[in-house]
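Q: Predict the assembly, please.
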Amino acid sequence: MSKGKISPLNSHGTITLRAVAEHVGLAPGTVSAVLNNAPSARSIPEHTRQRIHAAAKELKYRPNFLARSLRKQRTYTVGLILEEIGDSYGSMIISGVEAYLREKNYFFLTVIHRHDATMLRDYSQLLLERGVEGFVTVDTSFQEAPPLPTVCVAGHRALKGVTNIILDQEQGIRMGPEHLVRLGHRKIAFIRGPKTLGDSAPRWQGVRSFAKSVALELDPRLIVDLPESGDPISSFEAGYKLTEELIKSKRSVTALMAFDDMTAFGAIRALAKAGLRVPEHCSVIGFDDVAACSLYTPPLTTIRQPMEAMGAMAANLAIERINAVLEKREIAAVHRKMAPELAVRESTRSLL
Amino acid sequence: MSKGKISPLNSHGTITLRAVAEHVGLAPGTVSAVLNNAPSARSIPEHTRQRIHAAAKELKYRPNFLARSLRKQRTYTVGLILEEIGDSYGSMIISGVEAYLREKNYFFLTVIHRHDATMLRDYSQLLLERGVEGFVTVDTSFQEAPPLPTVCVAGHRALKGVTNIILDQEQGIRMGPEHLVRLGHRKIAFIRGPKTLGDSAPRWQGVRSFAKSVALELDPRLIVDLPESGDPISSFEAGYKLTEELIKSKRSVTALMAFDDMTAFGAIRALAKAGLRVPEHCSVIGFDDVAACSLYTPPLTTIRQPMEAMGAMAANLAIERINAVLEKREIAAVHRKMAPELAVRESTRSLL
DNA sequence: TCCCGAAGTTCGATTTAAATG
DNA sequence: GCATTTAAATCGAACTTCGGG
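A: Predicted assembly structure:
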């Protein structure tokens, strides 16, 4: 057809800008300017604007996201890259990310690479093609810095240009032994993290510095290390085994501090198997505060990572950095430290 | 500028179709046809095709998703609507959805409406604007059927046109009492679901029919109902309270079957508080198999919902229905039943 | 008529320069 | 020249129509 009567509606029956324009008898450009409150619409008289707004509302006009994005070169979308999601860690982070992005009218595309480094490369490429404007990663370390603003939660490594959300491990971990000592414990066993894990060293550093400050003796025979492993569930089993051995060694212990909640759950099971009750025979304290902690019998005392807050902060920083790039502002990769807090429940008891 | 030398690269330095075309000295349309293996490219000689493919590879050409989507009116994106995500239920479903969609080269946009019905309307509108081609919902009931293919997991209600992933509750639940009876239990307490919840009735129906088949007496004094509530954590507390009352009543019970795992955890805590051990004094069985079950002390015997499989199935059906709509095929809203399975752990023991 | 490919239109919105009274 | 509005170019790819040898 050359020029005949063209329907303002497209083939799918959606209301387009043109439909609104024809309805009010104006040009699409005019309608666009008004609806977006563009500077070029300054001169358009109030009465015309109202007509346009009324028409848009009446026709239930919704701008086409794809068309708009294509033109403005903006998608208001970030890529969320997770290693895993079955654990409560990942999902709590998502929750925080979602809440923040939703509020800012951003969306996110999720990929889970399930411990596969090759997938990670492919997936970030796919996200790039989809036009994401930045990345938020959880427990994922890039080999090289991505070409977009990137904020990492957990599992981070120093990469120039990427911002890390860091838990203040050293300060946070102190709350554990501090709590135990306050309750009168002195014979404390420790299950440390795997030597290869970045989190392990600063945490132990925190314990040591606290121990020194209160002259608490750290008995090397009561200190064991989690073996290296990629699998989160494995720390449960490792916690079980290590505690079992500790029990067999018959060393006197009144409290046990585990590297994380999974390890603590494993330890509690081992204690129970040996006929030892928590906290009556041994206090146990974990780290993370996963969902199961408060449901556990006994409810687990633990050091809480503010996971939702960390997710929200990650989203916040991502948007901030996206804007910086758009405005060609230079912005340093500031790392944000988040403070953990002690969640006292019933797996620890006073000896006093 | 009027017509001078136009750079094939756009302002962001991305490689466009035109860039590839200029590189090989052909028209963009030709390149497009070849790269997409379009029917119109049939006649293009092999040698030209190779030149084009080589150039595309060399320049690392990636088609612009927005432009392509706009033109083809396809986004390969579905909207994932969740009520909540902190619990392991939501995240396991996501995991299944993600795995399936990823394989089919779809993406998904996530919104969490956090028990707010108003939000739900707004959010599905937003997803629509973003061009999603279908919905997958978890524990979310629309007031009216959405204008796109929709598949619901959990919390569904009969709405014409929407497909539900249904757990075969009636058959599944039988496995609970069956297991207990096989272990020699006869005095079994039941904590049923809230009367207002759709799942409750069929499950109880399953228990009753099984009881009848083995002449198991269901003592009404051992049957209690969870109160109505939107909050998942509340079933933990309700389980605790109801069990506490049951204990106080001093009725003889050797096993307890809870409506879900949360309720079971609450029950176990109440038993522990009363000095009763699981499974020595009382066996306990749950429903769902959330992540905490296997970590619990004792590990909880439960009836597993195949959550990842349900998520994958939902994604599967969603894509199937999206394709049906595109091909203008009529497709009935087939509901898919998934079979739960019994996960025997250590919270149940044999009396024989 | 076949072979090969170019040119132009479309998707829907934004934005510039230009035109009308 | 001023206030209003419009036509046309653009974003990047895909599809349809045409045309030269």
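Residues 1-6 of chain A have pLDDT under 50 and may be disordered. The domain at 169-305 of chain A is CATH 3.40.50.2300 (Rossmann fold).
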